[in-house]
Every structure is written in C-alpha cells, then in structure tokens.
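Researcher: Structure prediction, please.
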Amino acid sequence: MREGSWRSRILLERESTTTWENIASARALVGDLDAISICSNGLHAEKARMYLRRQDPDLGTRLVLADDYRFLEMTLLKPVFAVVGSIKMRQLRRTDTQG
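Model: Predicted structure follows.
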C-alpha cells in the first residue's frame, strides 16, 4: 500500500499461522466496522474473503474490494502463483457447493 493512499484505520492481526486462523482472529477486530477490506495479493485476498464469508456471513456482506493488483510485482512468479492459486480456489469453491 502506498504511503498516504489510505485514509482509515489499518488493523493487523499477527498471531495466526494460517489464513483461516487469521480471518477467525480478525473478526473480533472488524466486527463493528461498516466496511472491511482485505489487502493482500489477488488470489490470497480472494481466499481470505471466501473464508470470511464462510465464518461470518454478516461480516462478509461488509466486504469492499482492495486494489489487489500491483503492476510489475513478482512479475516472473505471477504465472505460477496464478495456476496454483486457481487450483486451490477451485477446490475451495467445490467444498462450498458440497457441504
């Protein structure tokens, strides 16, 4: 995030070791907010948004998109991350429809 590009509070949760745990812990931090933005790389942010919707559908309705795309960031690795991330997201969505 560029310095000065955000005009609100930024809350960090530092105890979790997985995205699922991070979302579970962060729910207490963001429960009273009208809008929630998850900032990360594109696929990871989408996974975190899916987890929030699963764990707390009410909070999921308060999600607003962050600017996940950053030009030239990890340029050579993005194709690999895109393939792996797409496979993982497909598995998560399949789990949503099955249970």
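Model: The longest helix spans residues 78-98.
Researcher: Thanks, that helps.
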